Amino acid sequence: MYNELKNIACSSGLTAFGVGHIEDLRPHFDALPMDQTEGLSYGISLGARISTAVLKSCITGPTRHYLHHYKMINLLLDQTALKISLAIQDKGYNALPIPASQIVDWEKQTAHLSHKMIALRSGIGWIGRNNLLVHPEAGSKIRLATILTDMPLQADKSLERDCGGCKKCLEICPVSAIKESHKDWDKPACLAKLKYFAKEYNVGQYICGLCVKVCHS
Predict the structure, then answer these.
(1) What is the dihedral of CA 162, 41, 113, 73, to 10 degrees?
(2) 182 phi, psi to nearest 5 deg
(3) In a 3-state reduction of DSSP, which class is residue 3?
(4) Cα-atom radius of gyration of the chain, to the nearest Å?
(5) Residue 23 to residue 148: CA distance in whole angstroms
(6) Of the four, 18, 84, 198, 199, which is 20 to 30 A from 159 by CA?
């Protein structure tokens, strides 16, 4: 079924597909009750590439054009996750699609789970200095969605890579929130700027796009 599910993702236009063992991560899914994810030990990670041309419009912050593209990418991911979940259910297994972009705690800016951690387990990329997932070809120009399932699937190997000497995201961050290590990322400073952008740039959503635009693998 691995290849069959991957084919659904590819035929839908997605950039990345991977599977990882995630049983030990279940206790960290704060917005998902343990009984809801019981037995769902596999995580399917889906990734869709963001348009480089659209991101070029983000000079000092996000644009309405980027906002629309961002939403359409999320919609594509959610629709594809549903297709794959239905295919899994047709085989008699359980599938729990997790929305690509749905905040459940606005203060902490957290979702049902960390898509990038599932993607990390699934071999799709690594965590960059900007604290985002970095894909080997797309860089951070990728949006993610997740499906949790009990269907036994071949698991992919994690990528043993990092950003090397690239520090473009450090240079472009308007509040210097990005540091040498992603572990030192200044989340409060980043969040404060996102709040400012949402209001002053008339996008109404916590997006930026600057470190995403300059990220190359």
Answers:
(1) 70
(2) -65, -20
(3) helix
(4) 17
(5) 10
(6) 84
Please give the Cα distance from 112 to 30 (Å, whole number).
7
Contacts of 73 (CB under 8 A, 6+ apart): 48, 50, 100, 143
Whole-model pTM: value is 0.91
Count CB neighbours of 217 within 10 A: 17
Q: CA 189 to CA 174: how far, in whole Å?
A: 10
Rounded CA separation 18/43 (Å): 8
Residue 115 in contact with residue 45, Cβ under 8 Å? yes
The residues, ordered by sequence, that sit 6+ positions from 107 with a Cβ below 8 Å of its Cβ are none
Separation CA 5–CA 125 (nearest Å): 19
> What H or E segment, with its residue span, contains residue 145?
strand 142-149
What is the 8-class DSSP label of residue 139? B
Paired tokens of 1: 């079924």
Are 211 and 130 spatial neighbours (Cβ–Cβ below 8 Å)?
yes
Token look-up 């599938």 returns: 95
Nearest-CA neighbor of 155 among 14, 4, 17?
Answer: 17
Please state, in angstroms and rounded to a whole number, the distance separating the CA atoms of residues 130 and 48.
Answer: 19
184 class by beta-carbon count within 10 Å (0-12 exposed, 13-18 middle, 19+ buried): exposed
Tell me the mean pLDDT in the region 193-211.
93
| Tokens read off for 49 | 């590439």
b/e 189-209 (16+ beta carbons within 10 angstroms → b): ebbebbeebbeebebeebbbb
Residue-level pLDDT at 216: 83
Mean predicted confidence (pLDDT) in 37-44: 95
